[in-house]
């Protein structure tokens, strides 16, 4: 296969920026050279003035997820093409086992959806919707033979995805035995359902009541409960889509105590608010209905989350990419906010949105790469194959132009949605060129990849457990 030297750029790994040329040989990175010292008999890709970063890794997506009588509007094809446009070269999606389903059959159904359709590499976590003896046995088999080393459980959505504390404890005990990571959606769903029913009975049907009936203290409570349960089981724990100061405080406390507790947040919780988006007039706020909900700008959630990213109490930025169109999908909840499909589409914009944090002085360049690529790879058993520009790693590489701009919105996006949750956001940077395992898939404003190029990534155990 062909060799390609990426010249003149600044390589940014989690360890920091350094001017280097990068030699790609086939699908992998062969070597790094001091600028101008690489081989002369190879093709070149000019990265002058650009950052050369490991491809983004989004460890929280829901392509084609059935939800609330409809399904997330991005297929594995459209969603991974959008990911590529946004500098994301690996996604980890959630295969779903519902109550009563056989875990391995549910997993096979997710493979069938994804195989041959992805433009970038992909892996799976497994959602456990029904913990019983068979599901617990299946956890071992998935870890040993299927390359799935992380299992998501829900303290929210009673009757849909919900697990009670006993089921959670049993799964955590299993994870403590087999080295898997438990991923938790921490919101007290039982209490939320009471508040939501009470709101509806008062005639409070607008989208903002989705947020007002899911108060941040109920995320804090569930976060604390999950940490206690994981402590009893001796299991590692990773909180998905952490949105609230109360939850972050509990994670920080556990980490300070030396516990294997980790958390991610998502761009929507760093930039968008209950009042400005979810509270938009009429039914408009439905665009931003997701769980957990956007938080109040009158509290300290947003600055706390940015701070958590700096201090590593938040280790990862993912997206919880779960797009729905307004027409025929979000509209299912007109007159009843509980029927609005939950989710926001962001897979295409995460690298840009978090880079804006660098421009705004909230994060370092190294931390941008660490939270969006390196730590996701390390926490979820893909490192050093993914998440780093280093010899032997997959040549998943993004040339990021700090002098470019990106205007986010419906007119330019590739996600399969009829609106953008990020309309009007202007980013002071631009994804210029994207390589997925050595193949250029985006350059010069053109997608040159193909559905089917993306391969299933079998993951190992987490690299970050103490
Ligand atoms: N939250 C969402 O907003 N959508 C899908 C599932 C979830 O937990
Ligand atoms: Zn969730
Ligand atoms: Zn999710």
User: What is the CATH class name of the largest domain?
Assistant: Alpha Beta
Number of helices: 13
Calculate the terminal CA-CA distance, rounded to whole Å: 40 Å
CATH topology of the largest domain: TIM Barrel
Radius of gyration: 21 Å
CATH architecture of the largest domain: Alpha-Beta Barrel
Strand content: 15-25%
User: How can the largest sheet be summarized?
Assistant: 8 strands, parallel
CATH homologous superfamily placement of the largest domain: Metal-dependent hydrolases
> What coarse outline follows from CA principal-axis ratios?
globular
pLDDT averaged residue by residue: 97
Which percent range fits the helix content?
Answer: 25-40%
Which strand order does the major sheet show?
Answer: 8-11-12-13-14-15-16-17
Uncertain residue segments: none
Q: Which small compounds were modeled alongside the protein? A: dihydropyrimidine-2,4(1H,3H)-dione, zinc ion
Total beta strand runs: 23
Number of domains: 2
Helices and strands: which structural class? alpha/beta
